[in-house]
Amino acid sequence: MTAKRPREIHESKSDEELVQLSIADVDAFYFLIKRYEPKILRYISRLTGGKQDKAEDILQEIFIKVYRNLNSFNPKLKFSSWVYRIAHNEIINQYRKDKPRSGTVSLDDTDEIDLSTKLIYDEDIHNTYVHGETAETVKKALEELPLKYREVLILRFFEDKDYKEISDILRKPPGTVAALLNRAKSKFKKIARQYQLDSPI
């Protein structure tokens, strides 16, 4: 039986195991970055709509903070939720810095149709629509939402986070998350009507 190479050993480790290894050996942190970099970069881009270089700057800051705070990671929390929490905080900080200049944070142009599909479909919603011509309209409607509503919709319907994970990321009780999602969907529905979308949330 062929012995596993160091890379294969690290890649087979759980997030929590890699955290412990990274505390003792900075080289192990590379495998956590490799595992989460694409997900977090997409999350930043979808939420902020920033240019690629700006998103990458935010990503770098996020992973610097992740590494600096590895010792404070609570193993009772999912590592993915912890990383998204740090990402959330960094994005909010950046949003506050940029708001006076831009006035808003828009969604990225990528994956518009996928996002619109997920936003208007939930287990309690049976009517869906996927029309290329409506994707841009849905994007514009979403851009009118306050950041807190846009983020919770993205976490739930695009990042596929459950209520517990969103609760951990936003540091809000699950009941508050549920209420926030309901308000976000309600507000999106009203905006969607203004854009004459056929099947809003």
Percent range for helical residues?
55-70%
CATH-defined fold name of the largest domain? Rna Polymerase Sigma Factor, Chain: A
What amount of the residues lies in strands? Answer: under 5%
Cα shape: elongated
Largest sheet: none
Helix and strand string, N-terminal first?
HHHHHHHHHH
Number of helices: 10
Give the termini distance in whole angstroms.
54 Å
CATH superfamily of the largest domain: RNA polymerase sigma factor, region 2, helix turn helix motif
Quick overview:
This protein is an all-alpha fold and 201 residues long. 69% of the residues lie in helices and 0% in strands.
Task: Give an overview in words.
- It contains 10 helices and no strands.
- The protein has helices spanning 6-11, 15-24, 29-48, 52-68, 79-102, 112-119, 132-143, 147-158, 163-170, 174-194.
- It starts with 5 loop residues before the first helix and ends in a 7-residue tail after the last helix.
- The chain folds into 2 domains: 6-102, RNA polymerase sigma factor, region 2, helix turn helix motif (Rna Polymerase Sigma Factor, Chain: A); 112-194, Arc Repressor Mutant, subunit A.
- The model is unreliable at 102-133 (pLDDT under 50).
- 69% of the residues lie in helices and 0% in strands.
- By secondary structure, the chain is mainly α.
